[in-house]
Structures are given as structure tokens and as C-alpha cells.
């Protein structure tokens, strides 16, 4: 069965992900420890920006999952990996600004490494959509790039937002920006991670912001 196609504009920075997934290789499943600490098995979980399935695969072993991504190539890769391991999920091609889901229809949303690929207006729309589809007392699990990250910089097209040569948008967040974006949520548990990387004898910083946001 083909994945359902949601209603979204094929904006250039969305189309760029199809080209990206033509060459991206499977990096293996990622840890879902934080999610399992908050959501009981069998919960309905949306992987918002599932890509080629690095979180979708382990999620599918514990939850009823929906994988959404702007890239059909990404969705196809994710389905292939899940099929390989005898796992299943629902799949939809859509962006975060107009989720093809009913109000209060999921218990949790996983959004790792996605919000920083959107413009400011899109990030605001995505936050509204996330809070719309999540159940009362549900959870959003997120991770984004921080402004101190070594990759910050380039062709700035909005504040702290850059366009790369591959056509993909990169935005770099502050904690205050996350708090403002989800200010109408219930509670926030936000952390920052700064790790040192050395390239050719020079030290750099990888800066991420991650956490759990509770619905009202």
C-alpha cells in the first residue's frame, strides 16, 4: 500500500529532502528511552519527520505509530526498514504545518531534528498543529540545534536561519525561543547539551536543545 499523501505545498526546502534521501544511508535505530519513561506501551505516537525510520523502527516495537515526512523517498526507506524487521506503522507524506490528523488524536509526538528545518512562520504553525493533535496530558519529545552550534552561519535568510547549498533550511534555537513557541503548553522539561568536537586540531562545539513538553 502506498503512503497517504497529505495536503501540503511542495516548497523548495521541502522538495530538497527527496534529493537528500536519495543518498542518505540508514544509520541504525536510535534510543527511545525518554519516550518509554513517559508513555505506556500501546500508546498512539506520531513520529513527526520520521525520515528513513531511525526512531520509527524502535517506536513501532512498543507503540501504535504514525510516520509523517515531507519526503516520499524517506517514507519509502522507513517502510523498507520496518518491513525488514517485521514491524509496521502508518505512513503519510505531509509537513508539520498542516498535519492530516484529528484533534487530540495521539498520545505523544516525537519531533527530533525537525523544527530547525522550518522558517519562522512554519515553526509557529507546526507548534500549533502539534498542540492541536496531541491528547490532553500527552507529551512532545523534541530536539533542535542551538545557536552555539559549530554549524551556525552561512547564507542568513531569517534571524538565526540559514539556507544550505542543498536547499535545506537550518535554524538555530535558544531555550527562550522554544519556551515562547510552546508557551501555551502544560509544562516544559528542557535541557541543553554542549559537546566538544576536534577537527584538524581545532576545538568546536555541538549545541543541541532537547526535552519533553507536556500538553495542557
From TrEMBL:
Keyword S-adenosyl-L-methionine: yes
Organism in which the protein naturally occurs: Methanosalsum zhilinae (strain DSM 4017 / NBRC 107636 / OCM 62 / WeN5)
Pfam name, any one: Methyltransf_11
PANTHER family linked to this entry: METHYLTRANSFERASE, UBIQUINONE BIOSYNTHESIS O-METHYLTRANSFERASE, MITOCHONDRIAL
Superkingdom, taxonomy of origin: Archaea
GO molecular function: S-adenosylmethionine-dependent methyltransferase activity
Annotated protein name in UniProt: Methyltransferase type 11
GO biological-process terms attached to the record: methylation
Domain Methyltransferase type: 46-142
Keywords per UniProt: Methyltransferase, S-adenosyl-L-methionine, Transferase
